[in-house]
Specification:
It comes from Oryza brachyantha (malo sina). GO terms for molecular function: single-stranded DNA binding. This protein is mainly alpha-helical. Among the domains are: 86 residues, Arc Repressor Mutant, subunit A (Orthogonal Bundle); 90 residues; 58 residues. 58% of the residues lie in helices and 9% in strands. The protein has 18 helices and 8 strands. The strands form 3 sheets. A 3-stranded antiparallel beta sheet has the order 3-5-4. A hairpin with a 6-residue loop joins strand 4 and strand 5. The longest helix has 28 residues.
Length: 402
């Protein structure tokens, strides 16, 4: 809806606005000659955004927090059960105090407030003495609610947007690995998802999946076939509702992060290093050299040389161990290999350095474009650089925001 787009655009550009400010801005951005939306229509669109958790009120601006309460001696406080208490910093306690409950965050603007607001703006809204006496309580309640509502600042719920990006990312990652004919079921599963209970899983009822499949022309699919495909997608029945299926996004993101690092190892060291590094990542524990050779079916000299390169660049680590059954010559010293605990941090550092280098090269290309007459080649290079920066942004988002 154009009105919903204008509402979100206003919040993203300004950070936080009251509903009245959003109404004024939405009406003002309508092109001349077009029909301006009514306030009630804007309110309904705004409530839809709140219901879908795309918009929320800002936290309490002045939360009351008394730091001296936690500093009282034990004798003056009530005896608490013997449980392990997690000490929180003052900043964290203030944030928790300012946070709103779900009922407050996703409370829609009722129509009665709009009626009271319109009546308050009208020149005929004066109330006679007799009518004031009869309806004093009701009118005061409405006006107080309206004043409070007009003072509420709203903002975009970035957690919701990040969750939508996470869903889209995981769906796209799964897409190339699916069998032919399973794409409609995958799309129907994500489209039928309920309001999320957390940021790491997607839950969709089977009835909603069937409804979306019917809209896509998949009415001939049986329930057994759909269930089988959902299981192939790593969807499992929900523990809270047996008629719903749940997909754990954190597992897909974890696998995607490993694939990003493995692809860098492959580009930098070759196919053999990619195979060895993937084995060590999937094992998740120290692996002996002989087991690496037997599992990967690679030449012994290639394995040793590749392990040395990865160890030298601090992607993997080694440790010695004693084994009396190592060989018959009495040499009991052998090595086991494992990925370093900091290999992800090292990969992120490489991404930052690469992004800075690309930005510098992009800036130099722009300077060259200004004074170049034949700029066809430079423009094509600039396009390649922009695509590389976008690719880096996706990788950084995968490791930092997800």
């Amino acid at each position: 809806m154009p009105e919903s787009e204008a509402l979100l655009q206003g919040l993203l550009q300004n950070g936080r606005l009251t509903f009245d400010q959003l109404v004024e801005r939405t009406i003002s951005v309508v092109p001349e000659g077009s029909i301006k939306p009514a306030r009630e229509e804007i309110r309904m669109n705004f409530n839809k955004l709140i219901f879908e958790h795309y918009v929320e009120p800002c936290p309490k601006p002045e939360p009351f927090f008394n730091p001296l309460v936690d500093e009282q001696p034990t004798s003056t406080r009530k005896r608490a059960p013997k449980t392990v208490e997690i000490s929180l910093s003052i900043d964290k306690k203030v944030v928790n105090t300012a946070a709103l409950s779900d009922a407050e965050r996703y409370s829609e603007i009722p129509c009665i407030m709009e009626d009271a607001s319109n009546a308050n703006d009208s020149p005929h809204s004066s109330i006679s003495g007799a009518k004031r006496k009869r309806n004093a309580i009701e009118v005061d309640a409405e006006l107080n609610s309206t004043i409070a509502q007009n003072e509420v600042l709203y903002r975009a719920n970035f957690e919701k947007f990040m969750f939508c990006l996470k869903k889209k990312f995981c769906a796209e990652r799964k897409k190339p690995k699916l069998k032919v004919g399973t794409h409609p079921i995958r799309e129907a599963f994500f489209e039928a998802s309920l309001i999320e209970r957390d940021n790491n899983s997607v839950t969709s009822p089977i009835n909603g999946i069937l409804e979306r499949l019917g809209q896509k022309g998949g009415t001939s699919m049986t329930l057994d076939h759909i269930t089988r495909v959902l299981e192939e997608l790593n969807c499992s029945p929900s523990s809270e509702d047996p008629n719903s299926f749940m997909l754990d996004l954190s597992r897909i993101i974890e696998a995607s992060r490993n694939e990003e690092i493995e692809s860098l190892v492959k580009k930098k060291y070759g196919q053999e290093a990619f195979i060895i590094f993937r084995l060590l990542v999937r094992e998740g524990c120290p692996v002996e050299t002989d087991k690496i050779i037997d599992t990967t079916i690679l030449d012994k000299q290639i394995v040793h040389g590749t392990l040395y390169k990865l160890w030298k660049d601090e992607y993997i680590d080694t440790e010695g161990s004693e084994n009396p059954f190592w060989n018959r010559n009495g040499n009991s010293q052998f090595f086991v290999w494992r990925v370093k605990n900091t290999f992800r941090e090292q990969f992120i550092d490489n991404l930052y350095h690469a992004a800075l280098n690309l930005q510098m090269v992009n800036y130099i290309a722009e300077l060259l474009l200004e004074g170049s007459k034949d700029d066809t080649k430079l423009r094509s290079r600039k396009t390649i650089l922009i695509l590389a920066l976008i690719r880096h942004d996706d990788s950084l988002m995968l490791f930092q925001d997800f």
